[in-house]
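Researcher: Next entry in the queue.
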Amino acid sequence: MPEEIVKLTIDDLEVEVEKGTSILEAALRVGIEIPSLCYLKEINEIGACRVCVVEIEGVKALQASCVYPITQPIQVYTNTERVRKARKRVVELLLSEHDRECTMCIRNLNCELQNVADNLGVRNLRATGESKRYPIQMDNPFIMRDYNKCISCRRCQAICDKIQEVHVYSAQRRGLDTVIAPAFMRDLGSTNCITCGQCVIACPTGSLVEREATEGVWAALADKDKYVVVQTAPSIQVTLGEMFGMETGTIVTGKLVAALRRLGFKRVFPTDLSADLTIMEEAHELIERLQRQSNLPLLSSCCPAWVKFAEHFYPQFLENLSSCKSPHEMFGAMIKTYYAEKEGLDPTKIVSVAVMPCTAKKYEAARPEMGWDGYRDIDHVITTRELGRMIRQAGIHFRNLPDEPYDMPFGVSSGAGAIFGATGGVIEAAIRSAYAILNKKNWEMGLIDFEELRGQSGLKEAKVDLGSQEIKVAIAHGTGNARIILDRILNGAHYDYIEIMGCPGGCVGGGGQPILGGRDHKRISLDYRHNRADALYKIDMHSQLRQSHDNPDVKNLYEAFLGQPLGEKAKKLLHTTYTPRGSYFNLVQ
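Model: Structure for this entry, 589 residues:
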């Protein structure tokens, strides 16, 4: 049946909407933006902050526009004196107990509370309440929690409950002392948090932020005794530009490299190279399991948030997880072994930095498994946001930088490595190479694209012909969708290969990516993540090399150092193990 249409008037503008549409969404149709702080479309629609109140003709009390469904013709006023005073008063009350040291806050100039206060003309506070005085929680390497900036909007809770289905947050304490926190106010490192950082993206203030590592990187760059190298994840080249006002999905690969050189890094490499290396290992692992018909389905292991989710909630699947380290950890191992040997460098003098799209990579780098013989694979992980801040601190005019190439010998990568940053990219890249290996094609085989594995659907399934056999694959992004696919397997469904990414959209939607301005709910929307993913596929389409097994640097790595995929040295340096964690896990214990 066609949806029933309702006509209404908003500030004397007529608009037609589907019955049940909220006033807030209806106002957008006629270009009116109603301020809000707690609202996330289809995720957190609770009317808690009351900043979005409007006046409705014939209704005595002001109404929260985000939760007021339009069921009949009405007249709405969004900018009356009464509405402006009410909104202003609400924001004043929020600020009265808020830690207002804005100039020292990491979210300064990118804070929704700050922006709403400015837009409403809040210049002084008529009431000053007792400010919160909670200690800042940072007993983990990935997310810092400052309850003194929490406005109890519950957006972190909604994302964690409804999208990721991890259920870390709930309301703690009572009345004016209420904050949204883990049970018993525990540090996130002491809970079943999967470190994805989606709560950081959702938070409207600086209450949740990534654990900064920039000071350690600056110190390493200033130390003349250190040889500091950096790698950049595939998605960084299509998201960093947003930190400098560029359109979503702008490809800035050359400027990214130039900026890192100007910051002082000795060598700048693409993680895309080790994504190709990961594909070589994982494609052979897939073939081996298919031939043995054991530990199927093979579950991808590139996403540390998804891996931690499995360790906490689905430990029965740990034997199904690929033993491959994620690409940035593989690269870290190669830097301190093969590269150090090739360049005559002392591994103890090398500082390996990774620019990553998520907070989970910070957690992963701290895992005790991610090292060997006393060396850590990665010394520092910084997010896209942290790199953007470093570039600004250095006074570099990013938009005016020339395009520069990555350094050799690891500067060559394939399009298959680039699409790792989008949901479905890992499995498509692996199948490209698995097809070639199984069909005994030479390194120059023709490319096969797998269009059915692309797109932003939360769950995708397909049957893929590998020539010698047909396999069933599945793709999930967001761990709420991971639950669906894993529960299907527990109920008897059959798959051969599954890619799971912890963040909606894959790495392009990671918890360390730029936090966009504009409408609140677009922070979590898949629309802009789709634009970022499209840019990665554009890089793939225009790459001279589009398959991991074609990469000459990868072939040279095996010939000169690793031997063969899944060989003894590869197993030692490029593979890892996993740990069942139960409901709670304290990284510092």
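Model: The radius of gyration is 25 Å.
Researcher: Noted, moving on.
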